[in-house]
Amino acid sequence: MNLKNATGALMVFCLLAGVISSCTTEEITEVTQVINNDTTIVVTNNNDTTIIINNVGDTMIFTNKSNLEPLVALSPQFNFVKAFSLISSSDTLETGSGELFRMGGSADGSGLVKNGDDYYFMVNLEDHYSVARIIMDKNFTPIQGDYMLNSSVADYARQCSGTMWEAAIHGGFNDLFLSASENYHYDVKGIDPFMSPDVDGDFGLDALGEFSWENAVPLPQNAYPGKTVIVGGDDDSSGSEGQLTLYYSEGGDADLQGGDIYVLKKKDATESLNEGDLAFGESYEMEFVKIENGAAMTKDEMEDASIEANAFQFMRVEDVDYGKGSPEAGRIVYFAVTGRGPGAGTYNDWGTVYKLELAEDSPLTGTMTQIISGNTDTNNKDGNLSILQSPDNICVTENFIYTQEDPNSFSRNHASYIYQSDLNGNNPRVVLELVERADLSPNKNISHSGEFGALIDISDKIGVPNTFMLSVQPHYWVSEKFKSIDGHDITGMATKGGGEDAQGSQIVILQGLPR
């Protein structure tokens, strides 16, 4: 930056960022120094006050990048949080080969990595049976979109939650997007976020086993140095019902082939127990029991083996996350169990969140506590959040748990909420809700049709504190323009689940959400 241009640039920056309310060109009398490769400006105003503004060149100013306003509404207590729409299914980009890209429906699991000055965002598009990559420039403006996997793949599957294995955090030398498959083919796919698209490639990580995968979450490498630990959620309600799973290898911090498969059970249990056997707020000793030859089993065989192992039966394990900020926190696993709904005759109607504190010397034992529950007037009637309906995705930071709802199967007649609580589930309160826009629905009927996908903390990657990316699934938003946009049409393929989906979705930036 030339000194003669610095005053004007500073004026523009002040107006955009709101750094100094009295910053005007009349008051700036001298630009005395430009240092740090044009990223710091030192000025003096007519009151002889020196103003130092850092990172002018690198500051990221968020605006709506999509043509659709954010489909979220902040609650009054969180009015300091700002929402910006990054990309929606109504937007179009070019692919790397110059074709048209449009993001599919039901954006769910996601992960973000940096590549030079650009950002690579991987996201599962659940009801398009595909995985997309969206590239943003240094200003976080989407510039390219590609389908990395589409519905033409032989091991066709419904990609649900997903987690980015980051080498710097989880171990090894390569980043890998772990995309979990809930049905049709029950595996976890590992996709290189930097590779050229291979839309019908085989990315299955067979060593992790077959479950109704909702997510597969690697623990940070400093939690158990020299070990590979991946905790998974089994979104099932039949057979052995839902398990909390564990893939464990002592063969290094990035061994995705030579480990063993385990399922969680109550310590010393001689039969399979369920959530009805637990009291809210009480802690129970748990252990992971090994499934011999688990990698070679089909999903049905895994169900039988889990029953034989007296695995604990949860009513649909959904998302999994771990604590942040220290090796000790990385050994604390949090997971959401979505429940089955009122009148279903199960032991978990409205859903729960658990905290599993793993032992320091081994991930195979720990203490589990139910810390959030919507079952205040049903089941054991000892919950703490009477408005909770079907908790699905969760995000854990150094200080908070963010619990996200999916009320599509059953609801308490309110739109999907996201709650904030402390790390013990105390004082849960509504952060925001999904906007239900009847004008986006073909029949103008929204009926609480929508949910949230992944919420991921991107603060450290982009250098802006308290910044998150949120996947939004407004299931009511349907358009013929959204059919077959992954590049493959499955209409009429009964063996692969029927016709094409026509839903849209959106990615939202939340700035100012406390970590």
UniProtKB/TrEMBL annotation:
Signal peptide feature range: 1-24
UniProt entry keywords in alphabetical sequence: Signal
Organism: Marivirga lumbricoides
Keyword Signal set for record: yes
This protein's name: Phosphatase
